[in-house]
What we know:
Strand content: 15-25%
Oligomer: single chain
Number of helices: 6
Largest sheet: 5 strands, mixed
Amino acid sequence: MTEKGQLQFASVLASSIHDMKNSLGMVLNSLDGIVDPGLHQCRCTPEQVAQLQYEAKRINDNLIQLLTIYRMENAVYEARVDEVDVYDFLEEAFLQSKPMLEYRGVTADLACEPGLVWYFDRNLIAGVLDNIITNAMRYTKDRVRIGAAIDGEFLAISVEDNGRGFPVHMLEAGQHVDRDIDLVSGRTRLGLYFCAMVAELHENRGRQGTIHLANGGTLGGGRFTVLLP
């Protein structure tokens, strides 16, 4: 890892630990509020359980992303590219996220032609897709669309929502928004950093994977796309 990479990862790590500490604190405080110490019973609502699951998942995802970034930065991990049935891949991610989406009152659609095949690291891109869906759940009003299609010489995997969309400064920064670590506001953007690194790890015939943020699309909110060569 270069000196610049070490400093960048150190900043991501420090800020992410602070973010996870806040999430864990919220989980612990919530548990104190929903457990009756006298009756030893839980007086929680489905909404509270869903929020606890969401925060716990965020902490788990952050830890996985940090470990993966560390391995990639230190050249310990290389992309294991293999043939993937894209529809089955998206359906698996959709089904895994479905319980959490339903708990949060979010309707999800899957848009992909059956039989579409591409080559990429299934585990890494699954982590990227999971991160994007989790983020969309946080900002959508009530709808999410998961899709994939051929875009020129790339496979475009996208997640859209009908929320307020990405802020202007993130759109202007382009795919390198992931390198912007805001330690003051606490916005680590770890997920974006992780997604961009995974995308860049995929190369084919001189072309490299990228991420793209936009507003509008099918649902009118934010649209996060991963382009794989």
